[in-house]
Amino acid sequence: MSLISPWRTDFPGILALDAEGQTYLDSAATAQKPQAMLDALLGYYAGGAANVHRAQHLPGERATRAFESSRDKVARWLNAAEPSQIVFTRSATEAFNLLAYGLEHELQAGEQIVISALEHHANLLPWQQLAQRRHLELVVLPLDESGLIDLEQAAGLIGPRTRVLALSQLSNVLGCWQPLTELLALGKAQGALTVVDGAQGVVHGRHDVETLGCDFYVCSSHKLYGPDGVGLLYGRKPALQRLRHWQFGGEMVRVADYQGAEFRAAPLGFEAGTPPIAGVIALGASLDYLAALDAAAVAAHEAALHAQLLTGLRARTGIRLLGAPTVALASFVVEGVHNADLAHLLTEQGIAVRAGHHCAMPLLKRLGLAGAIRVSLGLYNDGADLERFFAALDQALELLR
Amino acid sequence: MNLPAGAEQALAAFGQCLGWEQRARLLMQWGERLPALSDEERCEANRVHGCESQVWLVAEHRDRCWQFRAGSDARLLRGLLALLLARVNGLTGAELATIDLDDWFGQLGLARQLSPSRSNGLNAVLQRMRELTRDAWIP
After folding, report:
1. Residues A274 and A217 occupy one common structural domain
2. Is B51 considered catalytic here?
3. Cβ B52–A400 below 8 Å, yes or no?
4. Pick from A19, A182, A398, B22: CA 20 to 30 A from residue B3's CA?
5. Of the candidates A356, A400, A340, A371, which has an alpha carbon nearest to the alpha carbon of residue B24?
6. Quick check: is A3 in a domain?
């Protein structure tokens, strides 16, 4: 019997795409949104917009309460001790840039920033550019055959000069959980600040930043069934206190004069300018929606879909999986078939998958590939979506071979 | 302006309403007819950047007319290149400057191949073609 998602009808976007003949299997790029989120977005604007943390009037107070209530919900979602440990940014990428600029003053020439070979450009380029500005060494932890960061080599590479260790929890290309407990311990033993890229990981299962024990955790709203334009940065309190302010203006200031100013602490001190108010409020609605779901049922559904995906890919000859994916997605190439040709023919058949380098060019280069096809799953996908994908894949391969 | 013979042929083949499979087969056939570039021509200087596939474009300007040759490692893109060259080869710089290639691919039922979200390289090839011909443009 085909797998049915009981949550599919909560997502108007997936139904609309379906009606248009589009099979959406690109949720790792961005997810469709639940009706509850759309209602919250419309409700905020239609009910009367107002800026937050500025005005004493009723609309301003209402917007501020809703905005801050989202901060509470995010803190609960991640199990942060206090809402003040959550900073809203415009994207996960912006959160990494905040960290790279906010920590710059702590780093001296010759010290190291350590990342891994599978990082998304968002958790690579801000550190790479920081390393260039401050003459630091950017150390790249290698992967083993299955796509996991090699612990033995990591133990040798993370050393006393390591000041920042920034790693992905779940690769957007390889789809496997990284051994973060062991890796973060290696960093902490050297006194390094630890940063976790949770952009993909946060979407699958619940994660507890207290247990994880990282100094910073970064993710985005739009992959977590929330609106785009909102990124999230969690910080441990002592770690947040080490950040220097980096964007200036708006309500991030405490006292301003022509020649000088004093700034607020986190979170507001790092939210310069008018924040994405509607987006933050709507993210709160997405989290309410997600929190009300049966988490075990969601996990079981996602695992069953993923198993169906892997079984189908493995049943076909000439398909090479990238790494050993265990959750959420699978990337692959087909022997003797150009990735762009396959992508072209899948698109022709209404299959929305991602093709190319997946914002991880160095990783693809290291794997010796110009690109790959990635199928990624959301909780609203059905077994029928995968059946359509495989039918289209077979048709495409028949034409190309 | 009369269409070059190759373009007439392309229009006859692609201009009718085709299913995706027929269109893909035709594209691959056209791609196979594209004269191969030599190893020397498949060099970095001739590379078109901004495509996820490898694409090379060589331009020659002779008797006021432009002749292009192109190649790619992706088969369907080779077909698109063949259709492009069928329309533009033999034109003068002035003619090239006025030609509407969006419309051309639209007539062939391939308008979506030029959409801005596409990274298949056709847009990058057009951009490169404009740069090459603008630099050497003789009124």
Report:
1. yes
2. yes
3. no
4. B22
5. A400
6. no
Partner residue facing A371 (CB), from B28, B52, B75: B52
Chain A residues whose CB is inside 8 A of the B110 CB are none
Identify the H or E element spanning A152: helix A151-157
Taking CB atoms and an 8 Å cutoff, what residues of chain A touch B73?
Answer: 338
Contacts of A53 (CB under 8 A, 6+ apart): A64, A67, A251, A268
Rounded to whole angstroms, the Cα distance separating A43 from B52 reads 42
CB contact under 8 A, A357 and B52: yes
Verify that A19 and A154 share a domain, yes or no. Answer: no
Note if the bond before A160 is cis, omega within 30 degrees.
no
Chain B residue whose CA is closest to A396: B21
Quick one: which H or E segment has residue A235? strand A231-235
Scanning every residue of chain B, which has its alpha carbon at the shortest distance from the alpha carbon of A398? Answer: B21
Which site among B28, B29, B53, B123 would you substitute to test the A interface, given the most A Cβ atoms closer than 10 Å to its Cβ?
Answer: B53
Q: Which CATH number covers residue B18?
A: 3.90.1010.10
CB contact under 8 A, B53 and A338: yes
**CA of A345, closest CA in chain B: separation in Å?**
8
Amino acid letter, residue B7? A
Give the helix/strand (H/E) hosting B68: strand B65-72
Range of the domain at B90: 5-135
Closest partner residue to B73 among A338, A355, A395, by Cβ? A338
Calculate helix-pair angle for A277-291, A58-78, nearest 10 degrees: 50
Contact B120 A357 (CB under 8 A): no
For position A206, which CATH number holds? 3.40.640.10
Interface pTM, i.e. ipTM: 0.89
A32 within a domain of the structure (yes/no): no
Q: Domain limits at A396?
A: 8-25+294-400
Residues of B near A (Cβ–Cβ under 8 Å) read 20-21, 23-25, 28, 52-54, 73-77, 119-121
- Report H helices in chain B: 5-14, 20-33, 75-88, 93-98, 101-107, 122-135
Chain B residues lying within 8 Å of A344, measured CB to CB:
24, 74, 76-77, 120
